[in-house]
Amino acid sequence: MRLKLLTIIFCAGLLLQGSGFAKEDYPQRIISLGPAITEELFLLGASDRLVGCTVYCQRPEEAKKKEKIGTVIEVNLEKIIALQPDVVLAASLTNPKAIELLKNLGIKVIEFPDARNFSEICSSFLELGRIVGREKEAEEIIKTARNKVSALTAKLHGLPKPRVFIQVGAKPLVTVTEDSFVNDFIEFSGGINIAEGIMYPRYSREKVLESNPEVIFIVTMGINGEKERETWQGYRALKAARDNRIYILDSYWLCSPTPVSFVEALEIIAGLLHPQNE
Length: 278
Fold this sequence. Notes:
By secondary structure, the protein is α/β, with parallel strands linked by helices. The protein folds into 2 domains: 8-136, Rossmann fold; 160-273, Nitrogenase molybdenum iron protein domain (Rossmann fold, 3-Layer(aba) Sandwich). It contains 12 helices and 8 strands. It has a 4-stranded parallel sheet with strand order 2-1-3-4, sandwiched between helices. It has a 4-stranded parallel sheet with strand order 6-5-7-8, sandwiched between helices. Helix 7 (181-188) links the parallel strand 5 (163-167) and strand 6. Helix 6 (135-156) packs parallel to helix 12 (259-273). The N and C termini lie far apart (59 Å).
């Protein structure tokens, strides 16, 4: 097996040397190593050039039919090489050793860092649009998303700001800080993140009880959401528990943001924070 892999790598190196595309030549064979990147390629109308993606690339439905090349973290190098991509679009969780090996083989790899806020989500999307020759389409999608965010924040202006806690981990308890795009969900929705100002996302139930949030969101990211909700409901001193305002959010909304999915999630969260304004 090892000899087979080495042979494939050697041959691929001969075939792919110099395969990086010029600025005016847009890639025709693309591999995506991130769910958000994959979804964005569909949004941009470039899905016909997507020849491979990870097993976690499940949206839109058509993405499930694409060739799978491993997970976000661990990719199948043999499959990637065999697909002869013009470019591999890597996510922040992609194994750095795999990226280095692909680059050494002459395969063009473009890395997309984690977006820290809505503005960076849009900037990253625009860059992807430039890479695949869909810059105008990207600009239009971003314009629509920004207009919707502006309209929503204007609608919520002047309303009471509920205290909010977002749980993204259970053991240990983990929340979101101000340098995460998830914090924008709270801010744009007219809420106050009880964890604002902290440097590290690890939190404690004692701190939550002390801050007494009016709303708690539990993100199903390796968490048993129902079990965690039952745990919080047991703290009757919590206003969120007394008012039955503990909600479970699908991790999709908070883990793989695109300009479009960000707005969709924002509208859901805003509706839960301000039900009287629906």
